[in-house]
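To: structure desk
From: M.T.
Subject: fold request, one chain
Message: Could you run this one when you get a chance? Sequence is below, nothing fancy, just the single chain.
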Amino acid sequence: MNKLTILPRPISFIFKHLDKPLSVMILAVSIISCFAVYSSSHDEVIRFYQHLRNILIAGLLIIFLSHVPSVIIEKFAIPAYVVTIFLLIATEFFGETVNGATRWINLGFINMQPSEILKISLPLLLAWVVQKSEGLNSKRDWLFILLLFLFPLILVLRQPDLGTSILLFISGTILLFFAGLPWRIISLGVTFLIILLLGLFIFGDRFCAEDVIWPGLRDYQKLRICTLLDPMRDPLGAGFHTLQSITAVGSGGILGKGWLQGTQTQLAFIPERSTDFVFSGYAEEFGFFGAFFLVLLYAGITLRGLWISIGAPTDFARLLGGTLSMMTFTYACVNIGMVTGVLPVVGVPLPWMSYGGTALITLGIGVGLLMSIGKDRSETTQGFSLQR
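Reply: Done. Structure tokens follow.
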């Protein structure tokens, strides 16, 4: 008997289309995030209540979208992309500038970050184009989809937001790989990246000299990368974030110091401790086992999303679901790598853990789309079984 049958019929219908394993793992990460955000911001408790509100909104979006067939979602691919491009252009001219970056725009009823919406609208459009063209079978198809792919990334780079641009590029590349991007292009890209990293590690002192200009990067972005090689280069400046974060993670030990007992967190040594660096405080208070459990949850969310996507009934659903699943994994890896000193500081929130309204709402939409795909997969499988 389905466990939902013990609930009243209206309530059972509301939760009917939720994928149970994925829902449980998302709920687990959300509960953990409440402990982490409260610990890092209980001196500003309004932030904790806002986090609860944002999680609730994300949950309602998941439930709503789980009832929407993916064939209907396809129809919103072009409008969502066009609206996002419009918002990105509007941000460049009318956006709010904070710390030298213009990433936010105030619409009167909400203050939002359009690049977050692009995390959904871009894969939506690319998946739709691939399905409509029945695969990318010509150079013209590839040129068209690359234009649609790279144009919004250029707008995000101009804000500037290098971290989000890189992650969006990775997500789009994943979708194109699922759509048939040749292995030789992937191999060339990986080879170039390895050569670049080796050159940076071997000749880091020369490249990081003050008189050396890195094409396409601003001075602070260059400084962040160079600081990764040697955080003690500027321990009270660019290296402060990384050093304090590494100290917090390392001091947690195996079992952690206990909730609300993390010294780096409670004494506010960790910068942005409820947003980009929330994992540092969590690892300090819950230790290696707590951090490892969280990583397992992210792995489970990714694998479950991929499992749902593999059985999706259309190419659009398969491409969209697979990309959204890998996005969660990519963002989690980049954020954890950033706070542990493996990757440079790029200002990427930890999915479902970091405080932030636009990011959580975007995540809710993404998971809701996965639930929709899972519903279609289930109905298709049931229909096939009945036919047999």
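Reply (cont.): The first helix runs from residue 9 to 14. Let me know if you need anything else for the meeting.
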